[in-house]
From TrEMBL:
Residues of the Ribosomal RNA methyltransferase FtsJ domain: 65-325
Family of the protein in this entry: Belongs to the class I-like SAM-binding methyltransferase superfamily. RNA methyltransferase RlmE family.
Lineage: Eukaryota, Fungi, Dikarya, Ascomycota, Saccharomycotina
Keyword tags: Methyltransferase, rRNA processing, S-adenosyl-L-methionine, Transferase
Protein name as annotated: rRNA methyltransferase 2, mitochondrial
Signal peptide span: none
UniProt cross-references to Pfam families, sorted A to Z: FtsJ (PF01728)
One Gene Ontology MF term: rRNA (uridine-2'-O-)-methyltransferase activity
Amino acid sequence: MRYIITHLFCVPQTPITRYSRYSLKATRLFSSTRTLTKSSSSSNRWTNRQANDFYTRKAKHENLKSRAAFKLLQIDEKFGIFSKCKSKRKMPLNVLDLGAAPGAWNQVALERCPAKSKILGVDLLPYQPPSGASALQGNILSKATHERIKDFFTLSALEKNDQLFNDVEILSKNGNKLEDIEYSSIVAKEVEMGQLMDDAKLKRDANDIKFQYPVDVILSDMYVPFPQITGFSNATTNEVYFRMANTSGLAFRDHMMSMDLCDAALVTAVDLLKKDGSLVIKFFTGKEDNLLEKRLHRVFKNVERFKPRACRMESKECYFVCLGKRDYFVDKVHLFTIT
């Protein structure tokens, strides 16, 4: 019996015979591998277009994860989303990147944000964030994911302000060093971390507005999975493509799916974004985008449509750039009753 090695699993090429405990008849089970050996015409077109695309080649040359990085760079050049926050302009920012895989927008945020900013990418797909950013695998439609995002930024704020995470030097009035306090015990630091998490939850339970709405900028580039054109099928990642709004080539279907994901990003902004914060949403143009624009105007002072030069001319993709959230609290029932 020969075996084909698929990832870490051995798949036999011959059928397995199993006898049922309730019957004398044998049940024949077949195991097989699924190999993507022949690319479809659409996959070939996509591959050829990628190979000849200026921004794809430039992204590879500049060591960027994908050509999407140039779209965010061009948005920031025009609107200054990482530098024109009205409150605390030069202070570090908390940036939330939705649909972050493979991490191109993380890279741009790291480059453009002030020093010591916190960047968190959220995606259903697992991915390796660039050094300096963090990643969370989760469904943004889940309330539990929102709570984990709050925990991340709340803990980051407490770490920054809490002296337990730094070596402390106590000086006398004349400047002479009196004592060095060093926390060398890993166990002690873990205990302190747990205490900080408890403090974070207590402060959020006390409705501290700073911890209820911790994010300065939200970026949404959801619905952009990459087509798999070679190798063995991988259910861990591919099933996500089928569940989420993958671009199908059908303009109406893609538009409606993008509207659903834009609504999810808007709900996230309502729940997590600070007053005067910014939101960037990618969408497919269609008849429903005017309704989305009305909703955005209720939440933000400034809403503009923008299509970066890096977008392909034939593509229906576009962006809403929303600046200046009107207030911390927004009534979602009132927001989504717009007709």
